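<instruction>
Derive structure tokens from the sequence
<entry> Chain with its tokenised backbone below:
===
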Amino acid sequence: MEVKKAAIIVLTVVCLAPGINSCALKNILLPEPEPAVLEKDQLPHKVAIVPFVNKTSNPEAGSIVRKMFYNFFSSLNYLDLEPFVIDDNLKRNELYQAIVSGEAVSAAQLGELLGVDAVIFGEVLSLGKTYALVYSDNSAGLKAKMVRCDSEQTIWELEHNIHIQDGDVPLSLTGLAATIVKTAITHHNASHLQAAAELCMQMVATIPDREGVSEPPPKIVALVHNAGGKLLRPGDLLKVAMIGEKNQKASWSIPPLAKNLLLKEKEPGVYIGAYRIRRKDRLPHGVIIGYLRSQTGTASQWVDTLGPIKIGEPTVLPPKITKNTVLTAAKSPYLVENALVVLPGAKLTVQPGTVIWFLNLGLIVKGELQINGTEAEPVRFASLGAGSWKGIFLDKTKNGTNINYCQISDAEFGLRVTDATVNLQNCIFQNNVWGIVLEQSKAEIHHTLVRTSGKIGIAARKAQLLVQNSVITENNAGGFILEKSKAKIEQNNIVNNGNWAIKVADTASNVKAKHNWWGVEDPEQTEIVGQFKIQPILFENEIVAMDGTNGFSDRSMMGFFYHNALYFLRYSLAFCTSYKA
């Protein structure tokens, strides 16, 4: 009973964020998962959950869903390897990239390499917000199977999807664990995490379990901490709370800094611990692992899903760049405490693998900016404050700006360009209020993802714009808004945006938006605002991938599903909303 109460507390609290007083989530009723269980006898003993293939527009989806799946799977009577142990082994043997790319790697080969009896493969089909006509919800979808290594026999297989609708129900919560969760994550990420957790919990419950030689491992409900979205420096405390069955032995690790740190049971089933950051500690992308062990020795574990832990003393940048300056990964991460201004005549070059954190303001470029990320080592700009930072502002820059393989997140403006020229290649703009804003400027955008903007993905006024082979999705208000601009938008995936895909606000604009995939058969009825040409359009089997190959792998585009299978739900939900009002 205590575990069930703790689960309710965590699943409720995980909806909350600082400054949000009321939010709840409601499951949309969908059929129960029906797995294909092909072998129940002589189940394997040791199992590896290899990296999941990510077929969504969310860059973290594969990692998030795999961790959630692992966390619930660890309570079954199998011996499982920790994900980071599996990943290190795969990378050393040059198989990691092949698996995450969806290439065929035999279970026999993986079994010999990892020393396991069976392997679980997974393809994440969706994770994020999906928009319909009268509501939006958070969806999660996964296709997974367990394969025996010696015979390549599939033991268990299931494809399952869930949808959790945003609601507005007042909540009142107390307790130490609740306080930690509220300060740990944003509402946006919490919704995705809950969808992933619900999906994996339902799927794992259908896996045939081994008969345990002793009592089953104690169950863990959740693990939370106070390090989400901020940097812990020497002297700071990293606080951890784990919730599970009461009267167990609990511990946690943050490899490689500390292992098997004890957690004390402060309340029944609520285990609390802390670690004070030492001067020599440095961990830009760490992970917390929690362990719960019974008195007889059976154990389960939980891998943190709240995001990478950031520990250490950063390199603080001066407020002004007055001469040519190069930022490198060796001195990374960098911290900008207020604003960083590149003055006219100066050039700022950011090399591969560099991470720059902002406390509140942003980067203002009046000179020159060159970002040289690579596929293996992208450049990252992000916030360390409680709220968003201001973003990157190109203000009348000279000689044009080239930004390659750069990830910009949690900003008010991912990129704002005024009276300047910019070329974007292979970039990710995610969780910004505005993705890209152009004013009296010229921009070329190629192979770039713009998603989950609070308002608009790409906005242009009196600008010249070329967008090709890119994905514009899950932006709350809309994908594009264009005013008095000339734009060529082609070979893109412009799908699953809030109110519209493209809105042209005037008749003076010259917009060509042919050969795009819109996620629906007739986008002019629901996705297009304004007078401009979109025909011919691409269909699902004609989609061009961001890497230039046919068959774009993004499967979080739920257009057909929503305009057919959930057709009746739009009206029933609209009726319920008006009735409650």
